[in-house]
Amino acid sequence: MTVPAVPAGPAATAAPDARGVAVQVVDLVKRYRRTVALDHVSLSFEEGLIHGLFGHNGAGKTTLMAIVTAQILATSGQALVYGQPPYERASVLERMCFIREGQSYPNDARARDAFKAAKMFYPRWDQALADHLIEALAIPLNQRVRRMSRGQNSAVGVTIGLAARADVTFFDEPYLGLDAMARQVFYDTLAASYARDPRTIVLSSHLIDEVAPLVANVVVLDHARVLIDQDRRGLMARAARVIGPAQAVRQFAAGREVIGSEAMGPYLALTVSGPLSGADRARLAAAGLSVEGVSLQQLVIHLTRRQAAQTQGGAR
After folding, report:
1. CATH code of the domain in which 172 resides
2. Which of 49, 77, 182, 216 is 20 to 30 A from 205, alpha carbon to alpha carbon?
3. Contact partners, residue 202, CB within 8 Å, separation at least 6
4. What's the rounded Cα separation, in Å, for the pair 163 and 154?
5. What are 56-101's pLDDT values in tens digits?
């Protein structure tokens, strides 16, 4: 990913030698009448990393972020931010920023007003970074936010999320309203800002392969529970894409779980589950087969479907 030259803001504070835990949730439950949005969820977001938070609609992602940022109350369990509950604690809340799709603002607020309010609230606000994004995303400062297009509203949200430089920032799909070029501006600016000032960022997105190069850790929620919580490199090693003459590829894949298949004339590409051993790689080389990494999105979808099949099978 190309990292642009983002104007330097206030100097970052020195990072600790050993990472701690920025956010920890323990046995978190949230019920809405008959609906269980979170079902005894326990996980932590390590500080100073970019985390990917994935899952289908209704999996519990937004509920989790809303509880951690004190937008709503949990039914039971505990959420801690740097070891403290976030509710009614200004010293904790000012360290967090939660930007979501369709972010709402006062009816008469202009974009300029939204940025002014954010600058007053967030103590580490980076005006140079905000100015950079305002220009790059062509944000009309004097237009009322409620009259903006979906894309312009998203641009205001991601600008606040990045310029706030909060210790913990949650992005809940706010960039879906941006077109492909604007999303790339967001990704590149995030990468450049994070490289200069590492902090805890959680990206919730359905565009898994777009955000995959940014994330260090992957959390997947499925049916209100944690399905995956693993570093991205370790997770990606759980599958491989084998390419070569169709017959040789099928012979290698015999007895293995196949995640995906793609025919290319006389050649075949099969994505197989499970890490490859040294013996596997020697066998691939001897057969003249090549091996590639897999798509994170494909792997997440496969693991989610497999879990659903196992759950249904166990229910019979």
Report:
1. 3.40.50.300
2. 77
3. 45, 50, 51, 52, 53, 65, 168, 169, 170, 171
4. 14
5. 999 999 999 999 999 999 999 999 999 999 998 999 999 999 999 8
